[in-house]
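Quick one: structure tokens for this chain, please?
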Amino acid sequence: MSSARKGHTEFIGKQQQRGRGLHAILYFLLSIVLVSACASLGTPDGGPYDETPPRVVQAQPENQATNVNRKKISILFDEYIKIENASEKVIVSPPQTEMANVRADGKRIKIELFDTLRPNTTYTIDFADAIVDNNESNPMGNFTYSFSTGDEIDTMEVSGYVLNAADLEPIKGILVGLYEVQADSLTGDSLVPDSFLRTRSFDRVSRTNGSGRFVIKGIARNRRYRAFALQDMDNDFRFSQKSELVAFDTALFASTCRPDIRLDTVWRDSTHYDSIQPMRYTHFFPDDIVLFAFLEAGQDRHRLKEERLVPEHFTFYFTAPADTLPRIRGISFEGDGGFIVEPSLQGDTVDYWITDTTIAYCDSLQFEFSYLETDTLGQLIWTTDTVELAPKVTRAQQLKEIQEQTEKWEKEQKKKQKRNKNLPPEENPFLVTYIAPDIKPAGSVDPNQAPLLTFPEPILDIDSSGIHFQLKVDTIWQDAPFELLRSELSPRRFQLYVDWELGQQYRLIIDSAAVHGALGHWNREIKQDLRVRKEEEYGALFMHVITPDTGVVVQLLSGADAPIRTERASADGRADFFYLRPGEYYVRCFVDRNGDGEWTTGHFDSGLHPEPTYYFPKAISVKAQWELEQDWELRGIAPMRQKPAKITKQKPDKDRKVKERNKQREAEMRKRSSKKR
């Protein structure tokens, strides 16, 4: 090889070595950068956590732009973002007939509207707190983007609450809408709501949060509006179904605003605050609209489902009650089958008991089932369906289970006999089924209670000579007067009425075979001791309702918001509750406008609001041997602040905040550093 060629080869080799070395250095530096970046995302301990919320950099069209005619919007942020619970939180107003496409794409949110843009209209896309950064889910906070198709943009707001009219529960996720009311559309009767809600969608719309609170933005100044709430089941932004919760306010309002100051707390950490600073802001009015949502009476009735768990019994379920029972005509059996029919207290469930074993033990029942159902015009009409019902557990399966249980029981008996040959023989508990009532209350009773006996099957007959009721006098049980009356609504329930004496002991005795069930079963002897508490074990509560209304019905509630006792207030507003066990109680009342003693719902087309409901704003503690007098000003507290938090089932949404994990990280680093020293 020539020296020139050899030198050229060496030069090339050195250049390749240098290139490989440079590649290695670059690879090493890149690896450090990647490791550092990855460590900073997760920490510990690649650096501080990202606690900076996303920030809008640019928007096309610009936020609050005017004379906009484009349907595609792009909002650019300073970091990668995502939208959480978009379908629940993002609201486009005016509402869109065809749902808008709102999606996150890297650092952008892209919005596409499909409806024709209305002229001279302000559009708002309210994201609430749904926008968070991609890595740490730091919330941006409440954000609303808006634009106008006209020369001006409307920036006013109104706010308020939607509560369930029956129990003042906040309603989460219900639509709240406004209609602008023109002067020429007003009628002389302002109590009847406009027909807008049945004929066209809202002009402005929002949705309530977990506190039932709503904020509607993009409101025009000096325009008059009327507010409605709607649980829009079919997404048409109209009140079109009885199954939709609805609320209306007959008052007209116009939005106004003024400068205001609020005090914001600056926290040093999770338990210590640093300072309280005044913050200037624009206060929009009205901010206290309260809408009471209700379901109208006479809900649409449809057959929901049916089930036959055992051969002797089947049940039909409906969406609403009816005052006429269904009719049955047998296909696999003759006539109506002679079934015993038991409607539920609400009337939306009907139980059937098959007393003829030749019908009950068939694996399949076929019959025509005629019932009242709501038609397309909202009228109840007779509908007939052909039904076939098979039991979930057949008679053959029942007999097989009895045989298996009997064999197991017989083996146990043989073992017992081997251990003790003098044991008396026992009756096989699986060959005979006995019926026993569920008695409530059992044990201790109050002097104003009538225990309820509920049997597991309809009762054909009770031998009254086999029913005994006794009072314990000293150590001797003596007969005492009583009445045991069958419920008018249920063939399985009986009520025990006694003129109780405080502090006494009683005993209910039902002789063996005194009760004959419709499915051929009898009872064993039943003994139930009942004790009436002493007078000193009770307290009393006297509520004095201060209200201009008459006909107030006061309800004493448990911690589950369920009525325990109900009393109609006297003409001077007094409702007395005697013989209360010590504990915490809650109180609500309603104004019984129609005098039927029951809370009555509203009717939209008639402009009839539900009967007003009020809650005493705190728990009332009743102590033994204490009589508590309590005044109650019904309208002294705003409705959204009346119901005590302890019995409010719908809890407020949790505030979404930056996690502030860097403070915890710094504390841990200081702790590790002190240990090393």
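The longest helix spans residues 3-42.
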